Amino acid sequence: MAKVDLVKVGKNLLKSGETGKSVELLSLWQDQPVVLFFLRRFGCQVCRWMATEISKLEPDLRANGVALVGVGPEEFGLKEFKEGGFFKGPVYVDEHKKSYKDLGFKRYTALSLVPAALGKKVRDAASKASAEGIQGNFSGDLLQSGGMLIVAKGGEKVLVHFIQDSPGDHLALEDICKALGISANAKAGQMPVCNDDVCTR
C-alpha cells in the first residue's frame, strides 16, 4: 500500500450532503482526529450495513473528540441514504472521485465486478444486512470500491489507510478503536447463517 500524501489528498474538495457547500478534505481533520468512511455507493446494501456498524462507534468517538464522516463517490442515492438513517455523522460527496483515486480505491471492470460481488465476504455482509432489514439497490456507479482513512488531529499522521479488496471488506470495530487508542462499548453485529435464500441472489 502506497503512503498517503495528506497534503495532496487534503486539498481535494468534498461537497457537503447537508449544505451543498464545498470543503477541503483537510478541514475535516484540522481540529480533531477523524474516521473517514468511503462508501462504494449510497444505494449499496452492504455499504448501508457497514455504515450502521461503524455508526455504533459514534457516541464513543464523539466522547473521545473523534469525528465520524461518511464520503460517497456521487450524489446519486444520497437522499435515500440520509432518510434511511444508516450513518450517524456528516456525509459528503466526492463528485470528481479525486480522493478515491488518490487513496487507491480501485474501480472494478464489468468483468472483475461479478466475481467480486459474488464472493463470500460480500454474501456474508449482504446476509447480515438482510437480517437487519437493510435493503439496497443497483442504481449508481457499481464499479467504484471504497475503504477507510483515519487521520490524527491536524493531519499529524495517517492512523489507518484501509482499501477494500472486495465489496464486502470492512474494518472491524475493534480495529478502528485500536488505531485511535480508545475503548468502545459498541458490539459488532452477529454474522447470520449464510443460506441459499440470502447468498445466491
From TrEMBL:
It is found in: Cytoplasm, Cytosol. Catalyzes the reduction of prostaglandin-ethanolamide H(2) (prostamide H(2)) to prostamide F(2alpha) with NADPH as proton donor. Also able to reduce prostaglandin H(2) to prostaglandin F(2alpha). Its EC number is 1.11.1.20. Its main location: cytoplasm. CDD domains: PRX_like2. Keywords: Cytoplasm, Fatty acid biosynthesis, Fatty acid metabolism, Lipid biosynthesis, Lipid metabolism, NADP, Oxidoreductase, Prostaglandin biosynthesis, Prostaglandin metabolism. It comes from the Eukaryota. GO terms for molecular function: prostaglandin F synthase activity. Belongs to the peroxiredoxin-like PRXL2 family. Prostamide/prostaglandin F synthase subfamily. One of its GO terms (biological process) is prostaglandin biosynthetic process. This is Prostamide/prostaglandin F synthase. It catalyses: prostamide F2alpha + [thioredoxin]-disulfide = prostamide H2 + [thioredoxin]-dithiol; prostaglandin H2 + [thioredoxin]-dithiol = prostaglandin F2alpha + [thioredoxin]-disulfide. GO terms for cellular component: cytosol.
